[in-house]
Write a structure and sequence with these properties.
alpha+beta; seven-stranded mixed β-sheet; 12 helices; 7 strands
Length: 250
């Protein structure tokens, strides 16, 4: 794919589904010198970098400036602190009751190898300065449902599987898993991203490899012809309301 194609497809997805903000692209860079132009962020979480990209900014973030220790460990920037690794930190946050549960959550967390990447570039896909590795979309659940259905169509109808610990939703669930496993993954969000960003209660996150974007767009165009407008018109619901009203008035 060429950059101009990616930018055009981003706008198509945003229009077809009616997204309220920009799709985000995430590009991994293995050498510091590879970092493309973007506003360097100081002491930001990865989910906050996504938030800024969602609202139109091109930003970069490296291990030293990634303020969330769990995300920094997941991207291989630095080791997970003992307080989190042991599960004790999650007990302190009120996320789990038992330390062993928190410990297991981190033990099973997919992550990149230490030193595998040096920095991240995060940007609105419609203004992509480089080819992204992963595409992340944050929006209302109903809108993301159509993204998932388009992907399911592209995969021949196989049921979708999602992996989540309701922890590290944007960094692990919707960026690292799609990258490592080369598949779509979706999440309900997590304590961290809902606390640290403007993600609304009705919104959540989905991520997929950038390589499948053309197929997603193709099937969204098909869904937009009938399924999306028909479902949103809520004809069956309106008919039920009318029937109920007639029965009460009889």
């Amino acid at each position: 794919m060429e950059l101009e194609q990616i930018r055009k497809m981003a706008l198509q997805v945003e229009s077809l589904v009616g997204l309220s903000a920009s799709i985000s692209g995430v590009s991994f860079h293995s050498e510091k010198s590879e970092r493309a132009s973007g506003t360097p962020l100081s002491q930001h979480r990865f989910c906050q970098a996504l938030m800024r990209a969602r609202h139109g900014e091109i930003v970069s973030l490296d291990g030293q400036e990634m303020s969330c220790p769990a995300a920094a460990a997941a991207f291989g920037f630095r080791p997970l602190p003992d307080g989190l690794k042991s599960g004790k930190g999650l007990v302190g946050f009120g996320i789990v009751q038992e330390q062993a549960v928190g410990q297991r959550m981190f033990e099973e967390m997919p992550r990149l190898s230490p030193g595998q990447i040096q920095n991240l570039l995060v940007f609105p896909l419609s203004e992509a300065p480089v080819i992204p590795d992963v595409i992340v979309i944050e929006d209302d659940v109903e809108k993301l449902m159509w993204i998932d259905l388009a992907y399911l169509n592209a995969q021949g109808g196989r049921r979708l599987q999602s992996s989540t610990a309701i922890l590290q939703a944007t960094c692990v669930d919707c960026t690292i898993i799609p990258y490592l496993e080369q598949r779509l993954n979706f999440s309900y969000g997590c304590y961290g991203c809902r606390d640290a960003t403007d993600l609304a209660g009705s919104e959540t996150v989905v991520g997929f490899p950038a390589s499948i974007l053309p197929e997603v767009v193709n099937h969204l165009e098909f869904l937009a012809q009938k399924a999306i407008p028909t479902s949103r018109a809520k004809k069956a619901w309106n008919a039920l309301q009318a029937k109920t009203k007639n029965e009460r008035d009889a």
